[in-house]
Structures are given as structure tokens and as C-alpha cells.
Amino acid sequence: MILALGSFLCLVITSWLGIILYKYKVPYLSLPFLITIWIMLLATRNYENLQLSERGIYTINEMYSSGGNFYLYLYDKLNNFKTPLFWEVYFKSLGAIIFQYNIVAGFLIAVGLLIYSRISFSLSLLGYATGFLFYNFVDGSFNELIYGYIGFNFILLAIAIGEQNLIATSSTLLQ
């Protein structure tokens, strides 16, 4: 019920901000989502039944209870699979788009991007490589890319800008 109310509140705030900011030609992007989250956090902070879930903290215990030794073996093999830092962070950043911090989720998203649109896949690689090389050039901390989920910003930004420019260019050529 709270999720439904929060979704409706986000819809109302998005419509309201869209109307107000349209006349100033200012994009509102994720502002409605942030305002909704703040309102929902303030409104639900006194509910004792709403707590953070501890599920996922003890991954090995959960894997053993759901699949036995096979899942533990598979989990161990996937976690110990050595990949270069570039690919490891790229796949983890793709996985972070759907709030999954692992290489397998990122790999599946990369395959999905490749099947859906080779252009989007290429743009994701280009955007991430640009951010990765920039971090490398300025001697930035890769912990921010790895643990801060910052890498997916490069990917999503490159896809958004590249696809928008592709659409604008193709519509100009058609006229």
C-alpha cells in the first residue's frame, strides 16, 4: 500500500514539476523521485514494522539453504573468476543499474544490450571506457567506481546522449 501511495505521489509531483518547469525550459529529471523519497522517509519513519531487510548479508547461508553445496560451489567459482579490472568494474557497473552488485548480472545486461541494440552496447562501452580512462588519468580511486556504483553513470549518460543525438541526426536527415 505504501508503495502504491508513493508511486502515485511521484506521478503527481512529476506532473506538477513538469508543468511548472516547462515554461522555464528547465529539465526536472530525477527531482520528483527525490522529493517523493524524502516525503516517504519522513512519513514512514515512525512505523516499527518497516525495517531494513537483513537478507543478502549472509549470502553463503542463504545459498546453502536454497540450493545446498551446488550453489555454494557455483557461487565460489563465479566469485573467484579472475577478470581484468576494466571488465570487472564494467560488468559490476551494469549490474548496479538493477541494484545487483555482481559480474553475472552485469554480463546478462551486456548480452541483453548487445541483442537489443548494438549501438547502445557500443555506447555503453564507449561511455564507460571514457570514464575509466579519465579516472586512470587523474589517478582517481577505483574504489569509488567499484563500490560507489559510479560507473553506471558513465554508461547511462553515454547511452542517453548517444541515442538522443542519433535520433536528432536521423530526423534531420529525413527532412
What features would you describe in this structure?
The termini are far apart. The chain has two domains: 2-44, no CATH class; 83-174, no CATH class. It is mainly α and 175 residues long. The chain has helices at 2-22, 31-44, 59-67, 69-79, 85-96, 103-116, 118-137, 142-147, 151-174. The mean pLDDT is 83. 75% of the residues lie in helices and 0% in strands. The protein is built from nine helices and no strands.
Question: In brief, what are we looking at here?
Answer:
This protein has 175 residues and is mainly alpha-helical.
**What structural class results from the helix and strand content?**
mainly alpha
Strand content: under 5%
**Total strands:** 0
- Outline the low-pLDDT stretches: none
Gross geometry = globular
Number of domains: 2
Oligomer: single chain
What percentage of residues falls in helices of 4 or more residues? over 70%
Q: Can you give the mean pLDDT?
A: 83
* Number of helical segments with 4 or more residues: 9
Largest sheet: none
Rg computed from alpha carbons, rounded to a whole number of angstroms: 20 Å
N-end to C-end Cα span: 48 Å
